[in-house]
From TrEMBL:
The protein's name: Putative Transcriptional regulator
Domain called Cell envelope-related transcriptional attenuator: residue spans: 104-259
Span list, region Disordered: 1-27
Domain LytR/CpsA/Psr regulator C-terminal: 362-450
PANTHER family hit by this protein: POLYISOPRENYL-TEICHOIC ACID--PEPTIDOGLYCAN TEICHOIC ACID TRANSFERASE TAGU
UniProt entry keywords in alphabetical sequence: Membrane, Transmembrane, Transmembrane helix
Pfam families the record matches: LytR_C, LytR_cpsA_psr
UniProt-listed InterPro entries: LytR/CpsA/Psr_C, LytR/CpsA/Psr_CW_biosynth, LytR_CpsA_psr
Transmembrane spans: 34-55
Coiled-coil zones: none
Length: 469
């Protein structure tokens, strides 16, 4: 047998004696118990947060944020906050470098943050509106920012709107919106011309202004640069009012994106705040911005109420060119209902309460705020077929981006009842309690631009159709 197969004797390994075991001391036993209890507490806390998040339909990070981040009411000590938002119009040096010193306002938003009902009211002021400057002269309202900075802009715009003033201001640089949209992965927008029936693409190049827009019409995903270009476009027959409409459309798309992906929003909250601080001049503190960012996570587009001050005439203003004159009555109503004393949101109605209200017991006025010819008449026919009594049918005094149902009736849930009878495309219409002395109707439905085309495209109800009371 070869040597390698011969068994070899095992070598003995010297045994090392084990050290004597020291009996556990009282301190080590206590430390072990504390560690075990701490671990159980951590597991229990995680389980509680996860379970509560499922119950509340919120992410665990939201639950933790609720516990760690103070609410805006605690931070500001008030129920609403008026904010002036100004977007600056950039100029460029001979070396093609942007600068905003003494620039006019390109965007003017008077914003009211409802810190009780989680709503945002945004009233846009067209930059070409005629306003009175502190020295008594007349100029375009955006001149105030160029003359005296944000302090004069706050003074002129608050006086022009007839409100006490602003609590905070935000001055946006052009990069702010672009980078914010890029931070959340872009937005989905239904790109339209000023005339929604015009389906031709939007093509515009302004080399000096660094504005290049090449977009197809229709629903599409836009990155930050594309979205900002769409928001800035004003070179058509509609001009500044339609540009404001596009700005509000992107604002709603941004809110919809944040609402749909709450976890992503929370995870990127720090980056969103950093983006804002890098491109924004404001008197908000970082802690105030963080509180607001956490509070408004998940806000629904229907909770953002956006309008613009309408105008009644075009005028030529020496030194400033073509300008527009505001509708003073509409301006006063909008400022009161959005910036001073917004109506309380309607209470939630249960199906039984709605079923108990007969459609024939309610008289409904229909106003067309969409700019789509015939939309009010189309909706009036639909509501009449549902059994409602139709009152006045006509145009609204101003354009509305979103549909609104205003309840004037003493009948509880009258607004919700009418809203439940609206076409599916309008089911997200905001319902507000709007008591009006001398009102001849129970409810007024204002068709917004977002719903005008959808209503107009619906087939007319059959002549014999009617709702059972």
């Amino acid at each position: 047998m070869p040597d390698e197969f011969i068994p070899r004797p095992r070598r003995s390994v010297p045994q090392i004696p084990e050290p004597p075991r020291t009996p556990p001391t009282h301190r080590s036993q206590l430390a072990r118990r504390v560690a075990i209890v701490a671990g159980l507490v951590v597991l229990l806390a995680i389980s509680t947060v996860l379970g509560f998040s499922i119950f509340k339909h919120e992410t665990p990070l939201q639950i933790l944020g609720d516990a760690l981040i103070p609410s805006p009411q605690q931070v500001f000590g008030r129920s609403q906050l008026r904010v002036l938002v100004v977007g600056l119009d950039y100029d460029y040096t001979d070396n093609d470098q942007p600068f905003s010193a003494q620039s006019r306002s390109d965007v003017i938003w008077a914003v009211n943050l409802d810190l009780v009902n989680k709503r945002i009211f945004e009233l846009s002021v067209p930059r070409d509106m005629v306003a009175t400057m502190p020295d008594g002269s007349e100029a375009k309202i955006n001149q105030a920012q160029a003359d005296g900075g944000v302090k004069e802009a706050e003074q002129v715009i608050s006086h022009w709107l007839g409100i006490p003033g602003f609590d905070r201001y935000v001055i946006l640089r052009i990069n702010a919106t672009r980078e914010l949209i890029d931070d959340i992965g872009g937005v989905t927008v239904d790109v339209e011309n000023s005339d929604p029936k015009d389906k031709s693409p939007i093509n515009y190049d302004d080399n000096w202004g660094h504005l290049h827009i090449h977009l197809k019409t229709g629903v599409q995903h836009l990155d930050g640069a594309q979205a900002v270009g769409y928001m800035r476009y004003r070179h058509d027959w509609c001009g500044d009012p339609c540009r404001i409409r596009r700005q509000q459309e992107v604002l709603h798309a941004l809110a919809a994106k944040l609402e749909r992906n709450k976890l992503n929003t929370i995870l990127h909250a720090g980056q969103l705040v950093r983006t804002m601080l890098a491109n924004v001049q404001t008197n908000f503190s970082k802690s105030e911005l963080l509180s607001l960012a956490h509070y408004y996570v998940g806000i629904k587009p229907s909770q953002i109420i956006a309008h613009q001050v309408p105008y009644v005439a075009n005028v030529y203003l020496p030194g400033y060119g073509d300008s527009i004159v505001p509708d003073k009555n509409a301006r006063r109503r909008l400022a009161e209902s959005m910036l001073i004393a917004p109506p309380s949101p309607a209470p939630t109605a249960d199906p039984g309460a709605l079923a108990a209200i007969a459609p024939g017991s309610l008289r409904v006025d229909v106003e067309n705020g969409s700019g789509i010819d015939g939309a009010a008449a189309d909706l009036a026919r639909i509501l009449k077929a549902e059994g409602y009594r139709i009152g006045k049918v006509g145009n609204s005094t101003s354009y509305h981006d979103n549909s609104v149902v205003r309840a004037h009736s003493a009948t509880t849930f009258a607004g919700e009842k009418v809203a439940s009878g609206l076409p599916t495309a309008m089911r997200n219409a905001l319902v507000v309690e709007a008591p009006a002395a001398g009102a001849t109707s129970d409810v007024t439905v204002v068709i917004g631009r977002d719903d005008g085309l959808a209503v107009h495209a619906l087939p007319s109800p059959s002549p014999g159709a009617s709702a059972t009371p």
